[in-house]
Recover the amino acids of this structure.
């Protein structure tokens, strides 16, 4: 019998839920107890609900049946739930699970701005995880940890590295976001084939508030946002996976381009020191080719094997009128979705919070 | 016999050349004398070289033969040449034609930064057309007028309107550029299907220098660039026609969003007063829907019929931390290509420079 | 006051409904009385529900309000209803309208195989329109006429021409169908970007039954299907508009390829003789270039202007082992959708059935 | 020192060449001696010439330098050359290498129809490999073995299985071919984004001749083609990797659909018995879902790990008018390209021909 932590995957038929399942195949800390979804999907074979292209699921995983979301059952059998539930439905379910003593690691945005719920990217702000101890449900073992929205996650590690080294004043960011970021069925093909949609609901607001929360601090029972400014323009492009983002940064110092590149490439966080299973050895990969990063080449960046798709790739580091310019790319449903919560749970496991 | 001006189309088998031909169908001022291209294409039927999708060429145009670029012949028969020649080949050919007394209106970038060659967008800077009189070849009737690169053209009219009304300090622009901008064969499909390429050779530098030249002045025999700053990030996306651009602007004044929208929508230039055939009645169309402009809906904006694809569409006007944010879209091979030079020639015609 | 026929557009917010609206702009026979859709859309501005790319609606059309589907009101004010309602909802609504005395011209499949409901492509089988006189509701002026599914429509005119001239034994057809054929929201982008889906529900069965019904006869109160065999493979590809179809045909005779091409190009039907507004002068256009037809170039084939997108383009006519091979292309939401019913209604108008 | 066979990769900067390199990483029989290409690429770092998306090359492979094609050097150092040279350039180079004693395994079509050059798909016709002994150069150890064009390879294994079991009379095939099949730069993006191109030069002819050659026999010094008929329609679609093909088959017997599926799924060839490194355990995978195979899900089918992309996936097995219908999918640059020649070389190695 396994002494791994028994986990539930909520929303297992969705794009993020299926990435959770993918990352849980052979995971050293976690064991899938059940795949859960709405009544509409209950009883279906997981393999008949595939959203993830070119998948690597094991046959026994493909053959698992989807179960209806019975919170009592989940609470009874699982210490932890990974939630890929759509944000608009996630709030009460996640709260109830936490009340029942389950540690919830969620990709949904419902609780991200709650008073004691952290948005964790462990290379950046694992110190904020302490905030869960101030959640009402913590005494019973239940709590909620969120990962950031996918567009913020795509740049927060390089921004943290540069902020630490050189100070950060202003971030001008324009996104080229993949369709998988909208979930499934998500974006109708008639809207996006051969097109750009310069609007993603609430995304710009989320980038501005979530980046400030993550790069800020938690003390005296509350979050204190960082004080740099974010000006975001968000757009959807016909790419399956991988958010590309253009950045223009105003830094406090005036490093050379070589110093900027070195700080990014050398950056390591606590997940790297702890060698968490999903942590990429090098969280920010700096490319020197003239035309990188690109989703086609860089979306799965990250090693070792369990950390594929978990590194952020930065390229085209330039300067213009005193500003620093670059492009960043990360996988929106791995690093910016399931992988974010997976690494958060791995970190909590190693910190004896599970 | 027609008393229209007889014109040559150079590079008539390319993406821009074919847009010139399209805009010349039934043109009130100009008559096609010949379609010219390199030896490789000479003798081919125009209709067998099509690059423009869903074309509206007349049958007799489709049946025309491509002729080899004989500059003496062109000079003998044509007062004007529209040039869609690739930039790297265009320089000497255009110079020679000007020396032979031909007025050259070109999309190529070869001469754009020359001392007395203007980059004209007539709604913005038709006053600079006077610079052609300082070109060496002007006495013989020959001169060169360029249109701007397609990404600059896509935003220069709204930038001009806002600069005039409110002052302009900084422009942060990220582009979502269409594949037709690279000409034909241009971008290999393996590079762009399902991908974003965050690099377009020399495009960012062009945007920074050409925008300043266009929004500057010409006096005492020289150009004097405008003094706002441009920070550009250029990328290619899998869209056929239409450059979308995200803008964050620092203005000198602090207009309301309504004032910004009104200034853009009300802007008119000399082409509108002169009712040039290719001039859109409203050069900047402001959309109020939450998710516009989009290439799929707005790329052909502009009326009357001859001005289709000649208007710039602006939408999502917002404010953030004191900056103004918006998206702009314009057709890169019409407004930002052949249509630009077409309107320049129409303006020159009306100003008796032809 | 207009003496045009007053018409309702049902399902006006959908892909087909919006094509009906587009074709009704300035129509010589028909006047839009109202745009109708489900309660969810009622009250919306038509221009805020756009599905048709690069539209050419008039401003007053964009500003019209969507009304809820009130059948009594429609019956009171409209002689005719164009129906773009989804097939699964269309059946009872269309029946009820016919019972109330309205002539229903529908793109929905609900009634296509009914005993006295014809599937009309006027170049092919306008003689079958007589079947409406056997519908129960005909005495009151109400009846139902359908157009075929889009994939059948795309090849039925060339098949008819070849059957008439040379006899037709077997049709092997594989389709490359556009995403607009699935309506809106229709195909999720995650399913089709960079992909092929080799399945379209019921489409192959429809092609086999509808082609036989259309190319058959109506007599003695019943339809008698034609006796050739159809073997269909249907697939979806990432194209916005335009169904491409590969054909291998077994003919009874052994014409030369030139004879095949001539029969196709010379084919004319009653719509051409009557000069119906939406009828293309040449219903089948034969291309001789080596790589046509293509959606990018040929989807809008058809002249005069009102008949754009109404011609079928055929190319690559070849022979192999005694079989005839070719590719055909037609616009799936114009010729194969709204345009089909539009021409049917025009025909009925000219035959005094309205 | 390795006792593996030392191999050259010719055309290593192209799409197929780079797949050869990918498959050679850690190969149990073969060691890369050098990566060769034209003078234009000589000296470049392999990693700067990438065509294969989401690659898995080792760092030392990315850092290798491309060398110019020096046939004497290759002949001196390599027993075997994998050729990804474009067909129009490959002929003389491959002949000369064979004359110099090198065993050439090539994806190029130049020699496929030569008198003693076999087109091998080892699950189908490894018996034909004996033909190399009749090549003039064989005495010196040099010979040429080709793999089939990618569209034929995609269906030849299922066709062989069905022919063996039930007899095969006619094959009606329509292809949905990926852009990587045209190499790099290959298909211009302007030609294929949102489009279908119903023409691939010589592909239909190749399918008809190569399938007959492969499923035929070699005896008495000559090839004897199989006698079934192939009617092919070939088209390009906007998919990166993976040729989908629709099939309608006339068989001699009348098996049930279950028997057809079983024969396909149970088929094994000599590569499976020999457990060749690149041989998939199950060469034809039969899917029972209603909408498979799809490039997005099935292009990398095949196990174990070295055989990813080497299995053919078949689905939607149906019957219509006595014909059998199905869709097949295989990876065009792995199974249908580099992987084909790789498995041929593995087979030759095990048969002591190297």
């Amino acid at each position: 019998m396994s002494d791994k932590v028994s986990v539930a995957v909520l929303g297992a038929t969705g794009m993020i839920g299926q990435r959770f399942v993918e990352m849980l195949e052979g995971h050293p800390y976690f064991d899938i107890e059940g795949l859960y979804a709405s009544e509409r999907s209950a009883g279906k074979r997981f393999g008949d609900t595939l959203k993830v292209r070119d998948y690597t699921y094991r046959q026994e995983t493909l053959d698992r049946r989807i179960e209806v979301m019975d919170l009592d059952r989940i609470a009874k059998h699982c210490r932890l739930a990974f939630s890929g539930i759509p944000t608009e439905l996630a709030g009460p379910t996640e709260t109830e699970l936490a009340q029942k003593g389950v540690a919830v690691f969620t990709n949904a945005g419902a609780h991200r701005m709650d008073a004691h719920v952290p948005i964790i990217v462990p290379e950046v702000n694992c110190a904020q995880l302490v905030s869960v101890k101030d959640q009402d449900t913590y005494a019973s073992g239940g709590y909620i940890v969120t990962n950031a929205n996918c567009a913020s996650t795509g740049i927060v590690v390089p921004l943290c590295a540069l902020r630490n080294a050189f100070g950060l004043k202003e971030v001008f960011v324009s996104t080229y976001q993949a369709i998988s970021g909208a979930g499934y069925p998500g974006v109708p093909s008639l809207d996006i084939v051969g097109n750009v949609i310069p609007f993603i609901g609430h995304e710009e607001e989320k980038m501005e508030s979530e980046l400030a929360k993550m790069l800020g601090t938690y003390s005296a029972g509350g979050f204190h946002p960082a004080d740099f400014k974010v000006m975001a323009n968000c757009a959807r492009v016909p790419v399956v996976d991988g958010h590309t983002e253009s950045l223009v940064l105003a830094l406090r110092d005036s490093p050379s381009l070589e110093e900027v590149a070195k700080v990014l490439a050398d950056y390591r966080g606590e997940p790297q020191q702890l060698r968490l299973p999903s942590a990429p050895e090098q969280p920010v990969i700096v490319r020197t080719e003239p035309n990188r990063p690109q989703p086609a080449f860089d979306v799965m960046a990250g090693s070792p094997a369990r950390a594929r798709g978990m590194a952020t790739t930065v390229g085209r580091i330039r300067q213009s009128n005193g500003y620093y310019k670059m492009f960043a790319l990360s996988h929106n449903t791995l690093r910016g979705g399931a992988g974010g919560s997976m690494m958060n749970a791995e970190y909590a496991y190693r910190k004896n919070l599970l």
